[in-house]
Here is the input.
Amino acid sequence: MKKIIKITISVFFIFILVVFYLSLNRSSNYDTENLVGIKLSKIKLESFESNKYFTNENLKKNNYTLINFWASWCAPCRIEHPLLMQLSKEANLKILGVNFKDKKNNALNFLNNLGNPYHYLAKDDQGKQSIGFGIYGIPESILINKDFVVIKKFIGPLNLEDFDEIKKITNSL
Amino acid sequence: MKFKIILIILLVNIHSISFTNEIINENKIHKNLRCLVCQGQSISDSNSDFAITLKMVVKDLVEQGKSEQEIYNFLSEKYGDWILYKPKLNKGNFLLWALPYIVLVSGGLIIVFLIRKRTEKS
Here is the structure.
């Protein structure tokens, strides 16, 4: 009996050590790995300039759509902007910009000064619509295909590596 | 014996029986939602921009008549199970849910075994 108790206690301690080892080595940061492959079947975003809405109907003709969440008050958005300007010239890609919790005048000034890379421009004054896209800060970008399936999600400003990856994916058609 | 079993089942389930038609408590939902931009805080404890927006979305969903579980499903679909402090049972967290019961049953068996052995000796 004593032997069984010893073995049980040893197994229990080994189990705890394994759990600690695995947990401490695991990143506790939020990642979007499990969001890739999900279909965005109910896209509905209010247009920046009118009371209309952009829905899946508007985007279904695009081979790829990059949904970019941005604001004029967001400094990292300025950093990624030149890359968006270059991506806007890609043949298989359309960019849907979502102006996030911003003032209309400031957003327009931002686009006038830095250029407008967006084929579609939407707004999310309160940030509530962005929750439907799993956004928790800006800038964030979501690359979807013709079937509205998430190919990749980019948290933070797009960098050169992301830029090349987007180009590679969209040119693979 | 049957009466005792029924009584135990009733006592164990009394909570769920009494609150079946409970009005959805937004604060309870807030406490189960992780603030993704904070360090170890639920959105109930946080006043961050993200937490405030998420509270507004929860309010909207409750007003639309969504159940607590539907709200969790909606948000875990968008952010993954990481957003829930109490995630659903799945392959990845099966052990986490089952371990307390396994330990409880094993402990009980060991105690029964020891008591039997002692009575046999005496």
About this structure: Chain A has one domain: 36-170. The longest strand of chain A covers residues 93-100. Residues 36-170 of chain A form a domain with the Glutaredoxin fold (CATH 3.40.30.10).
